[in-house]
Design a protein that fits this description.
alpha/beta; Pyruvate-ferredoxin Oxidoreductase, domain 3; eight-stranded mixed β-sheet; globular; binds thiamine diphosphate; binds iron/sulfur cluster
Amino acid sequence: GINDDVTHTSLDFDPAFDIESDDIVRAMFWGLGSDGTVGANKNSIKIIGEETPFYAQGYFVYDSKKAGARTISHLRFGSNPIHSTYLIHRANFVAVHQFVFLERYNVLDNAANGATFLLNSPYGPDEVWDQIPRPVQEQIIEKNLKLYVIDAAAVAKETGMGARINTIMQTCFFAISGVLPQDEAIAQIKHAIQKTYGKRGEAVVRKNYAAVDSALAHLHEISVPDQATGSIQKPPPVPAAAPEFVQAVTAKMIAGDGDMLPVSALPADGTYPTGTTQWEKRNIGLEVPVWETDLCIQCGKCVMVCPHAVIRSKVVEESALEGAPAGFLTMDAKWRELKGQKYTLQVAVEDCTGCTLCVEVCPAVDRQNPERKAINMHPQLPLREEGRQNWDFFLNLPEIDRVDTLKFTNVKNSQLLEPLFEFSGACPGCGETPYISLVTRLFGDHAIVANATGCSSIYGGNLPTTPWSQNKDGRGPAWSNSLFEDNAEFGLGMRLTIDKQSIYVRELVDRLRGEIGDDLADSLLSADQSTEAGIIAQRERVVALKDKLVNAATPAEKDLLSLADMLVKKSVWIIGGDGWAYDIGYGGLDHVLASGRNVNVLVLDTEVYSNTGGQSSKATPLGAVAKFAASGKPNDKKDLGMMAMSYGTVYVAQIAMGASDSQTMKAILEAEAYDGPSLIIAYSHCIAHGYDMAQGMNQQKLATQSGYWPLYRFNPEWRAQGKKPLKLDSKAPKIPLEDYMYNENRFRMLTKSNPERAKKLLADA
Ligand SMILES: Cc1ncc(C[n+]2csc(CCOP(=O)(O)OP(=O)(O)O)c2C)c(N)n1
Ligand code: SF4
Ligand code: SF4
């Protein structure tokens, strides 16, 4: 029920009220988005419904965050028809598929007395009890729960399943619950695996079978002690340093208790503070990168590709390192301009998703031991406490001076800029977010973002937290999401408003030069803001202007005071996916590109509608299997870049960070500098492409090397300078197209289901 303490229209209710009969089996499964828990439970409920005389019901609770969020599957079954239209609150079976949830959520609050508790634990049967937080131990004892544990991650690793523990946990559920005889349950699970994964190929099915077969050997019943002995306490949902609103509202939502918030706690105008993902320590990376100073060449590639802005570097004076934690690593900075200073690379281990992209792109390899790079993945748990201290210290180190130190026009230097988009809830290893993060490093403190609906609006602005953040001066991107279909127009509206306000404010400066002085008025009106130094100088002038207007009395003075900030340059970014740009928002995008206005459009091209599960868009390539293109897309990808170039007045670039991070940098800087519309089409690998995301950046390179994704920049300014406006930044193809395509399931699938057609489409492509 809603607690409406504003209009007082809600009714009180008794949360303990319950009429459910005792012969209904009620099971709750706590999983992590993309670990397969929901899919496995959907299979389980089908098996129970179809293969037993029981009636069955399944209901699945998850938010619209991308992978890595909490999911809860509620399953009921029994001999009588089930009419319950509410979630389970008296479960006789609770499975927790992620050990870290014991610290974060009240997973046993809904366990009934005598219920069974199945826990996926990285700790073996002998040590697990001591690792369970004390309040959870108390609940286990008080509620008389039967406790089973399995190290499903280890079984998954052994059987080649990667991070997918779903079928392992499902097997344990059937084994413990006894709802079907064990042999029959296993046969049914295997049948469901064949149905679900068959089209992904024999190997996937076989790995799942192996996981099922070895699950039971690793399942242990734990004898529960009479007394809670644990020394581990549950941490608060957000750190004590979090601001008041985050403590009072965001923390409740993070803990899963958002429904309990009274209406009055929510902001009346729908405006939420930014920079809040930093308070949500998700701890979902089982392994995290560890830095080796003897090998690091300080190239910054790992920092650039991290989809979650979790690995960062700084260069500081040695004196700033006073009081550093014992394990805080540094090395001499390898910059001529920063000689004598110290370089440090740090990982927010509690925010890392363990995606491995950073390690994959690291070029510094140990010659004696090629397995060892300058960063390598290690188990997170033993590193967590030290990592937390190092990260806190790192955050308090000074940021690089953006004006008087380096030119931030290459990857090596720009790694030192603070990202204002961090710890997003995008899928681990997402190919979209590194581009956004880079834009915020470069222009974040004066950016205004119009975000189309899609993955980027979900990981970008989904309650309770947002990754869009601020620098120490409180400046950061202003962000908003309107609709899927009108985002380009939405962004154009922002530009028109800024332009209109800036024309008016400039008029006022001129009109009121008597009050503010000719010198200040002239410098405000003639300021060159094409560089960061120019923008900072203009901000200082605006401060001086506001000082002069403290006693503003006339309407013109008051207007000038309220609009003074519009004298500072704003960078408008219109961001969205290919479903938006190529399809549903295309009419508006075309209008905006033709308008000649100074906006920057960033298309995060995953070549499908990713957020809704991978439907084909006009960006989907020939031969790829997607929803609505089950037999392989029969026609070519639309060439959005060519269409935009045909205007002759639009800056257009096609980029792929994994293929060339320096070309990506150049294109983003040029697009922003161009005083007119810019369109950047950014290759974004995605879980929808069907391969290990750790290989995302490598796949981007192959896309370009095979000629599938040429890199180019088209700059109308070059034509004005008498040069050719189009530069092809990539070389002629040097590998066969199939060497790129057939690493990805979206293309490979067709070679299994329809080899003849696959051959034809490959030839056409
Ligand atoms: C008019 C409209 N139709 C459909 C949807 C549902 N919807 C939300 S996000 C999305 C997919 C977005 O795909 P894309 O633009 O490619 O971005 P991605 O998720 O790949 O980043 C869809 C279809 C919507 N929000 N509005
Ligand atoms: S493993 Fe992934 S999330 Fe973690 S630091 Fe590396 S790139 Fe970032
Ligand atoms: S683009 Fe793909 S990988 Fe990134 S968040 Fe969306 S679905 Fe996940």
